[in-house]
Amino acid sequence: MSTSLPTVGAADATSKAPRNIGTAMALELRQVRKSFGKTEIIRGAELAVRQGERVALIGPNGAGKSTLFNLISGRMAPTSGEILLNGKPIHGHAPYEINRRGLARSFQVSNLFPRLSVFENIRCAVLWSMGERYAFWRFLSNLKEVNARAEEVLDMIRLRRKRDVSASLLTYAEQRALEVGVTIAGGGNVILLDEPTAGMSKSETANFVQMIREVTEGKTLLTVEHDMGVVFGLADRIAVLVYGEVIAFDTPENVRANERVKEAYLGSTLAETQAAEAGV
Predict the structure, then answer these.
(1) Which residues contact 49 (CB under 8 A, 6 or more apart)?
(2) Strand pairing partners for 138?
(3) Do 98 and 128 lie in a common domain?
């Protein structure tokens, strides 16, 4: 069976325009390890993501992708190794401290305030990013800068017409868009998106990927994604994680041609894709 990656995919249809990517590192992992008891999940992971770069993290189920995201965002502490954000160590810091330093993350499952409106969800994130706090003696409507930024994000994620709708009443794709909006509104310059297009139709995925391109312009993006059309259509470089190790970190073209990657991951992914298309 051929192990070349399939080129079909909703997100693959739109070519990536050249962008300015900096030379300074926005995010670095240096020999990061994570063990649970005697079981080592992350085994000396190395990664260096440049400022303004879009990187996709791929790998088979159980490779350690979610664990790596948890380590980067502070939900877990590494057993050893270093994690640097914009050149400064963040390993061992609490998630809110890492967020304050410029990193924002979304999750596989939407993490929203279901009873608040779309606008109110975004405004909560803006309040946090601007260092504001709720106070009973003042009206939020009077915080002009906060509200203006929330309205701007609302337009960026294309939910203007759902501005006053409760988050719980949105469609799944709209909730995922709102999740990205809340993440962006937090003010981070390094964005982590965990399987942002999971569960979407092809048309929803294509629109969603275009939205991600727009809202992350000028920011650094690291995303976990299983849709290979999204991965090869969005990423500047791809990191392949297998059994807790980054076995390849290169351009989409070079990863596509990497024999070790084909053997460890892309071959099985192709087989699954072909089976799905054949209705097996």
Answers:
(1) 25, 26, 27, 28, 55, 190, 220, 222
(2) none
(3) no
Can you point out the beta strands (E) in the chain? 25-36, 39-50, 54-58, 80-85, 88-89, 103-105, 190-194, 220-224, 237-242, 245-250
Q: What angle do CA 232, 237, 238 make, to 5 degrees?
A: 70
Tell me whether residue 14 is in a domain.
Answer: yes
Q: What is the tally of structural domains in the chain? A: 2
Same domain? 15 vs 58: yes
| Dmax (CA) of the chain | 68
Instruction: Say what the pTM is.
Output: 0.83
Same domain, 92 and 24: yes
Are residues 231 and 132 part of one domain?
no
Pick from 20-34, 47-61, 134-148, 200-214: least confident? 134-148
Burial of 49 (0-12, 13-18, 19+ CB in 10 A): buried
- Domain membership flag for residue 115: yes
Measured distance CA(253)–CA(237) in Å, rounded: 9
CA distance 83 to 31: 9
Residue 157, number of CB atoms within 10 A of its CB: 26
Residue-wise pLDDT for 85-140, tens only, equals 999 999 999 998 999 899 999 876 677 999 999 999 999 889 877 765 555 555 66
Distance CA 142, CA 55 (A): 39
Nearest Cα neighbor of 152 from 181, 116, 193 is 181
Alpha-carbon distances, residue 104 vs 12, 27, 156 (angstroms): 26, 12, 17
Asked if residue 83 and residue 1 are part of one domain, the reply reads yes
**What range defines the domain where residue 69 resides?**
1-102+192-206+220-280
Q: Do residues 198 and 134 share a domain?
A: no
The tokens for 52 are: 């303004």
